[in-house]
């Protein structure tokens, strides 16, 4: 088949080629608890999630999956294991994309699914992970688990290509950062015409999961590898979306929400930086995307080291100062500070110094 597939579209969401790196997450509530599931989906949608993967373990949940596709504005990708008939049921329920796992999806059972996906312009993600590599794949790779992941992806990729199916996203994940990076670099080099979904699977809770995910995803993105990302955390999925955008922002790839910077503090600090950060967070959601806000402990770290910030707060001998791009523009008390920040943002908008 022709190899012109350098991007795919899931509904109106373009993935690959010159599209932005997309941020996705996965529903953690079961579809059977529909109200709770929908609430979590809405929260993810509000946080900026662009593609939502949903576990679809049995056909009895087809009605709930269908309703979810009606109730959400963002596209849903059904996560399918073992049974390709479930993938067809998910397509019937309105899912524009499905994910299949090469480790547990028998190739000889995929023919009907491919036919349906071709007829309805469905996107298929071939998503291998380290936990589902089989003995034969590992043997073929001579024990190289990164290569075994690539082999697992290739087996189903070749099957799809043989049937002239090209609306494909590739994915190879491991809990091991170096293993995942190597696998994706191999896939990117060998199959540059297919978008790649990247992440570190089962990264863990809290700080562990965040650091492991940022290290792995950051290494891949910095080398131009990856078109969609998921930060897999043992946490509220909204935290996954927020972390995803923070990784992209840190690499200069996307701006979503406010870029909040703050000093680590030292013996010079004149204000409680941590408490002020928490106090202003609720206001930041209404500030323009890409705005840099700084909270600094003293006049040294304030207008000086944070002079690139659009707006900032810093401790001073007399209390707190407000600054923009390194220039002091006023003083305020702790109680006045949130309101004065809002006024400062509005003033910058009015003078077109920041985008609205």
Automatic annotation (TrEMBL):
It comes from the Bacteria. Pathway: Isoprenoid biosynthesis; isopentenyl diphosphate biosynthesis via DXP pathway; isopentenyl diphosphate from 1-deoxy-D-xylulose 5-phosphate: step 5/6. InterPro entries: Dihydropteroate_synth-like_sf (IPR011005), IspG_bac-typ (IPR004588), IspG_C (IPR058579), IspG_TIM (IPR058578), NO2/SO3_Rdtase_4Fe4S_sf (IPR045854). Residues 260-346 form the IspG C-terminal domain. It catalyses: (2E)-4-hydroxy-3-methylbut-2-enyl diphosphate + oxidized [flavodoxin] + H2O + 2 H(+) = 2-C-methyl-D-erythritol 2,4-cyclic diphosphate + reduced [flavodoxin]. Pfam families: GcpE (PF04551), GcpE_C (PF26540). Residues 6-244 form the IspG TIM-barrel domain. Its cofactor is [4Fe-4S] cluster. Its EC number is 1.17.7.3. Belongs to the IspG family. Converts 2C-methyl-D-erythritol 2,4-cyclodiphosphate (ME-2,4cPP) into 1-hydroxy-2-methyl-2-(E)-butenyl 4-diphosphate. This is 4-hydroxy-3-methylbut-2-en-1-yl diphosphate synthase (flavodoxin).
């Amino acid at each position: 088949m022709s190899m012109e597939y350098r991007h795919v579209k899931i509904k109106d969401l373009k993935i690959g080629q010159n599209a932005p790196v997309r941020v996705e997450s996965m529903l953690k509530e079961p579809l059977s608890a529909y109200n709770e599931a929908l609430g979590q989906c809405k929260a993810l949608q509000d946080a900026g999630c662009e593609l939502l993967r949903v576990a679809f373990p049995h056909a009895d949940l087809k009605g709930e999956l269908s309703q979810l596709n009606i109730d959400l504005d963002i596209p849903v990708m059904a996560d399918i294991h073992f049974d390709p008939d479930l993938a067809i049921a998910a397509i019937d329920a309105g899912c524009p994309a499905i994910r299949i796992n090469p480790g547990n999806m028998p190739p000889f059972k995929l023919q009907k699914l491919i036919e349906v996906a071709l007829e309805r312009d469905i996107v298929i993600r071939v998503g291998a992970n380290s936990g589902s590599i089989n003995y034969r794949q590992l043997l073929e790779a001579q024990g190289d688990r990164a290569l075994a992941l690539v082999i697992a992806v290739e087996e189903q990729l070749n099957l799809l290509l043989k049937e002239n199916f090209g609306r494909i996203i590739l994915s190879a994940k491991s809990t091991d950062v170096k293993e995942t990076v190597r696998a994706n670099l191999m896939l990117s080099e060998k199959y540059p015409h297919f978008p790649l979904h990247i992440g570190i699977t089962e990264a863990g809770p809290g700080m562990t999961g965040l650091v492991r995910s940022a290290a792995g995803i950051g290494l891949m993105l910095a080398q131009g590898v990856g078109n969609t990302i998921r930060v897999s955390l043992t946490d509220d999925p909204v935290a996954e979306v927020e972390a995803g955008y923070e990784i992209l922002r840190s690499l200069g790839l996307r701006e979503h929400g406010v870029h909040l910077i703050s000093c680590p503090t030292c013996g010079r600090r004149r204000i409680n930086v941590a408490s002020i950060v928490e106090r202003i967070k609720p206001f930041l959601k209404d500030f323009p995307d890409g705005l840099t806000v700084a909270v600094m402990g003293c006049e040294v770290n304030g207008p000086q080291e944070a002079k690139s910030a659009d707006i900032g707060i810093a401790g001073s001998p007399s209390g707190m100062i407000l600054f923009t791009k390194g220039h002091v523009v006023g003083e305020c008390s702790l109680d006045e500070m949130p309101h004065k920040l809002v006024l400062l943002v509005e003033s910058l908008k009015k003078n077109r110094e920041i985008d609205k």
